[in-house]
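The material for today's practical consists of a large collection of protein records. There is nothing in a record beyond a sequence line and a structure line. Backbone structure tokens are a discrete shorthand for how the chain folds in space. Nothing more is needed to start thinking about how sequence determines fold. As an example, a complete record with its sequence and its structure tokens follows.
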Amino acid sequence: MSRVDHMDVAAYALGVLDAQDMERFEEHLASCWACAAELETMVPVVGLLSDIDAESVTALEQTHSNPILLDRTLVAMRTHRRRARFRQILATAAAVVVFGGVTGVVFSNLADGGTAPPPVAGPTLGTLEPPNSRPGNPGDPGQGGTEQEGKQVNATDPETGVQATFFLDSKDFGTNVAFTLAKLPGPRECRLVVVRKDASTEIISSWAVPPDGYGTISNPQRLALSAATSSKLDDVKHFQVEQVDSKGVGTPLVTVPAN
């Protein structure tokens, strides 16, 4: 077999031979222990040489007969590989620059051996509803806070000047009452009385008023309380805030109708 046939080992290993040459070389390989041994040594580096085409193999074959051409070829290959490597580094660096513009903090923390900061949730656009859309007096329960449930009733006594705002909410157990009072001077003791339609009464709350009172010049803060009665709202005639003397006798301060 010719010397050229022996040089087909590299081309065969790289799979660049055509079908006819591959068949001819395999016939040669079956009887040539030298080519078989050379082919075995080339198996581990086939992956490294897989990017060399047939023209490169032909050029390499020619260099064996021309040492000057061999040197030039090796220099050219090394230059080509350096340039390819340099282009790869530039491409990688460009990717890092683009990506680092967004995640520079993450890379910095990783370089320092730290942990990347947790993602920060961005603002959510939406419409915030006011806590209370019910129209009413500024001092009503729920103004600037949680909206009160039930029917709102406002009342002011023409003689005492006491102002009251009630929220009456019918429940299975009876009636829930939330109320505020203003223009209520002190000191005094007061109570809330339920007056039913059958003329019966029930005291459902009592409290003490300090000297500065509530909803006054000395103390602008309104008094806010809540109470409950077992009476159904349909059975109630009105609610009455009373001042209580030392003998337990009540004097009406303001009356709030139930219906």
